[in-house]
Amino acid sequence: MILRNMFVLLFAVCLATTEHEASASETGFVSPHGLTHLVVCGPAGDFVPKNFPAYYDLCNKPFVDSGARWMFAKIQNVDGKNLLLSLTNDPEKLRKAIETLPQLEYLRTERLTKEMYEEHIKPWDRTPPPRLLEVEKSDWYGKLNEKQKKYVQWDEKQFAHVYDPKNYDVAEGREVLEKRWLEELDKPEPLLRQYKTLSKYDEAIFGLATIKSGKALKPLLKIATERVVKDNAYRHTATKALGILGDPAAVPELIPLLYHFNFNTRWDAQISLVRLTGQNFGGDPVVWGVWYADNQGKLGKDLPKFDPVPVDWSCGSDDQEIKWYSDPAVQEEIDNQFFDPSLRETKETFGQDTPVVVKMEPANGATDVDAAAVKELRVTFDVDMNTGGFSWCGGGETFPKTTDKPKWIDKRTCVLPVELEPGKSYFLGINAPSIKSFKSAVRGGRQSLDRKRAGISYNSDRNSTSVDRPNPT
Hints:
Alpha-Beta Plaits; five-stranded antiparallel sheet; four-stranded antiparallel sheet; 13 strands
């Protein structure tokens, strides 16, 4: 924590001294994002955004609408207030957008220099911007409506580590890669997707689609359209990959996914259908089905027919959350909340039924946990929960190895079976900015977890594993 604060102070000083230098010498530097100016803003008045993901969501729409294609997060924290940095080509338009947000105050604009980018921005930049720029230049992107474009922009940034082929190990030849990726997809889907981490399963899904493998259609369709209730993380990535693959035989299978209860799956199905057909009928499965029936022969030879019988994606499940999310009216409401953050429930509207973590086993801050004896992690909430979902979030080396799927043992306690190693540090989250399946049972489970209690970290010594709560900011 001390080192981080020192870096923040140094960063703030460097920005202040660089402003004069940049204005005195126009270097003409353009970031890999294709952007030229840095705009700094911060919270106005007494507004203290301790919940940074919510703060980011609040600001994101005006930033995107102003042409600021990429917003920087978690750079500075001054007196408990986060400052936001955004790269843009139109700082005046962005300044006006900032002024529409009462929670924000415009601070300054700086001409971006190579030194500023290399020293202070590049080390924090985990988003490969050139890919998004390439996507936006494609023919199919031009056929998208505004909501679809915003979804693609969010999706490409959120899962850039998955989509960008540059992150793959491509030292081997195509045939070797194709064989390895097909073998990977023959394995059972991983129990939990590691958040913000490129898994071998992710790489196989998008690797096969990227190289246009002629053997990829069947396994990708199985992942995307399997009629079972499962973790939909790989379902929606396979749905996106089918659009990249470019085989029109996927079209009739993608149409029913337009009303899947998983948000990402629904929207990835829309995008993939546009990519495969050059048409855009939004999320209307009836219109898509009619169009496909009339144009099936034009798309290719011997393509499968479209079955208009509706698919029950809940598979007859009695799970209350799945039933709720399967309601078309609820899906529309969720979609609207995604594109207009002002419609989302805020902390003030949560009420007394907002779930709060009351107990963690091992306990937060524990220093005497026996890594060999602990076979599961437990989290207990203060209200009855929607037991149809969970979001144990994390990834990479710091996420515990799981031995089975998470499960609810009662209405308030969820268990994650794990295998811990002594002498190793772990970190995991209870919900994440884009994954919030830990919800109360109120109104079908719409209440999100109180983000103040949303993290667990384990720091082990040679013989034990300890737990500590991370800073909520």
